[in-house]
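Record 1 of the preview.
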Amino acid sequence: MSAKFHWVLMVVFVCGCHAGAASIAESFTSYKLVPNIVTKAPANVISVKFPSGAVVDLGNELSKPQVALTPSVSWNAGDGLYTVIMFDPDAPSPSNPFISSFLHWLVINVQKDGIASGDTIAEYLHPYPPPFGDIHRYVFLVYQQRERLPVKDFIAYSTIGRFKFSPQDFADNFNLGDPVAGNFFRTQFNSLKTDKLF
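->
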C-alpha cells in the first residue's frame, strides 16, 4: 500500500470523526439542548434501539408505541464505569415545562456499555406526552464515572427525584463531568389506536 493511500485513509478517518462530533453538537444546539439543558454537547453518539425496531437518530420523531419498551443502548465505551440517563426537558409541555426535566431512566455503575451490568435506580418509563402542547424531546446522556457510586445516594431518583431533574446539576453533584455520549428523539401525543395499549 502506497504512502499516499495511507494519507488518504487518515484524512478520511479524521474528517469523518470531526463531522460526526460536529453533527452531534449542531443537533444538540439547534434543538436547544445546549446550553439550555447541558453546557456542552457530547462528542459521541449513544446508539439506542427499541424492541419495536425504532432507532434514535439525533432528533428524529418516533411514535409512543415505538418507544414503549426499554431500549438497548451501546456507545464507544472504554474501561471504567458509566452512568446512563434519559429525561424529558419538556414536561408537562414545552410551553410550560414546570416539572422539567422529568427523569425517565437512570442506571449507574455500568461496566463499559453493558447496561445490564449496572445498578438501575429509576426503571425505564416510556414517554407519554399529554394531548395538549407541542412535541417533546427525550434525551439520552452517558457520563463516565470516576469511581463506583453508592446506590444509597440515588434512591430518591426512583421516586420524587424524577421530577424537576436537572442533568447539569446531577452531573455536577456527582463529579461526572461532561457527557461522553448522547442522543435524542422526539415524540408527541397522537390518535393512533395502538396508543390505547399504553
